[in-house]
Each structure stands twice: as structure tokens, then as C-alpha cells.
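Many introductory courses stop at the sequence. We go one step further.
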Amino acid sequence: MLLIAGLAAGQAPVCPAANLIAPCSCADSGDGTTLTLDCFNQGLTDSRVSTILNAFTVNGISPLREVVLWQNQLTTVPTQLRGSTFSRLDTIDLDENQITALASGTFNLNSPLVALYLNINGLSTIAAGAFQGNLMHFLYSFFRNNSFKEVQIFRFLKATLEQR
């Protein structure tokens, strides 16, 4: 029997206990099968966010569809959001944190990621290969009010388009 967040397949997912994800909130994404984690403006550090995200995995399976980490104190993209941990993830909001670079392999996508928000982070570098894997569903990336150099922006866009 396949378990998702502690329930048999076909049943609605259940959020982790509130004390495991505090001060964040968790709710049904509106489709009855996936969840949204909302940690907007909680002042969370990299280590606390990692602990919260780990609460959503059971045997490597997670019903998370949307993760909102807007206005926290993150200095890097959480490891759990970089690849295979959340296979149903379609939206990641990392706006207004302190992420200054995306190294090669930061995102190795196997989820249907559609939107990535990295506005107002002080980003200066997106390395070649920062986005790898399945980019077929990746439609929107937002990088407003960062500190990019033009050459780096064009290199990122060219590499992303070539992978489609």
C-alpha cells in the first residue's frame, strides 16, 4: 500500500503536525491531492526551513505542490527544493530572501515546476547548468530587482531555451 503523508493512496493528503512546521501554515492546494506550505514573512533561516520541509516527506514521497518562502532569511535554495524530494512541486516562491547565487546543479528538476520566484534577493550569478533536468513545464521565472550582470542573464536564458 502506497503511503502519502501518512495516508493510503487515493485519500486526501494531511499536513504534518503544526508543531513540526511552525510558524508556517499548511493547507490543501485546492485539488484534494496536494498541499501548499506557506512560510511568508516568518524570518526563517536555512536550517529551520530544511527541518520544516523534511516534515513533509514520508518514505521519500510528498504531496507538496506549492512552497511559499517569501520574505525570510534564506541564503541558499533549500536542498529539498533542488531535485527529486517533491515530485509534484509546481511553484516555488523564494522572493525577498538573501540568495546571491545559483550554482551549477542548483535545480535538477524532475517535478512539473511551472513558476520560480527569486525577486529581490541580491542575486548576482546564475551559473551555467543551474537549471537541469525536465524543463518542459517550466514557464515562469521571476528575477526582478537583483544584481545581475547582463552576460550572465543571457547565458542562463540561452541554456534554458536550449534544454527545451
